[in-house]
Amino acid sequence: MKISTRIALCLVLFLGLSAWNIAQETSPSEITITVPEKGHSETVVKVNGKEVKGEGDTRTFKAKLEKGKEFKFKIEALIEPNNYTKITRFKEIKLKGGDNAKVDVTVKNPKTDKIVVRWVPTPDDIVDEMCKLAKVTKNDVVYDLGCGDAVMLIRPIQKFNAKKGVGIDIDPKILEKAKENVKNAKLQDKIELRVGDILNVKDMADADVVLLYIGDDLGERLSPVLQKTMKKGARIVSHRFVLGDWTPTKTVTVKGADTYEYELHMWVLGEKKVEKGKSK
Ligand SMILES: C[S@@+](CC[C@H](N)C(=O)[O-])C[C@H]1O[C@@H](n2cnc3c(N)ncnc32)[C@H](O)[C@@H]1O
Question: Which residues line ligand 1 (CB under 6 A)?
Answer without folding.
Answer: 115-117, 119-122, 144, 146-148, 151-152, 168-171, 174, 197-199, 213-214, 218, 239
